[in-house]
Specification:
Helix content: 40-55%
Structural class: alpha+beta
Oligomer: single chain
CATH class of the largest domain: Alpha Beta
Largest sheet: 4 strands, antiparallel
Strand order of the largest sheet: 1-2-4-3
Strand content: 25-35%
């Protein structure tokens, strides 16, 4: 093999050297970046699986339905009102007992995992005797 290398022209040697340099400077870093992204993806998938297990969520997110949302929310809270404000916006008012505020925070964390919605703007909290009235606007996606 050394004989063949000695007998090749200078141009072929330079071209071979450039091919090896290109491989070392472009292909190898690209491969390393790809495998790093694969590892990040697998870590993110594992984190999502842990969140699903932690909150006991179903694997399917549903389209927002006013009646179903109200029915499911009333299982957790005293009083729930849902009103359509615009095409894809809904105004939600929830009455929460003060001792159930942690339940409300968990509900708020997983609302976008259960329905294709986004909470718009700040939440409005009004304190009543033994309860809190929470108002929020939901945008359906």
């Amino acid at each position: 093999m050394l004989e063949n290398l000695k007998n090749t022209s200078l141009f072929s040697k330079i071209l071979s050297l450039l091919a090896v340099a290109l491989f070392a400077l472009w292909v190898v870093p690209s491969m390393l970046s790809y495998y790093e992204q694969v590892n990040d993806y697998q870590a993110n998938v594992e984190e999502i699986k842990q969140s699903v297990a932690k909150y006991g969520l179903e694997n399917n997110t549903k389209q927002f339905n006013m009646a179903k949302f109200k029915q499911n929310s009333e299982l957790l809270f005293d009083q729930v009102e849902v009103k359509s404000v615009a095409d894809n916006k809904y105004r939600v008012t929830i009455n929460v007992k003060k001792e159930d505020i942690k339940k409300f925070h968990a509900f708020l964390e997983k609302i976008s995992l259960q329905y294709y919605v986004k909470v718009l703007g700040p939440l409005e909290f009004n304190s009543k005797e033994k309860a809190l009235e929470v108002k929020m606007t939901l945008l359906t996606l």
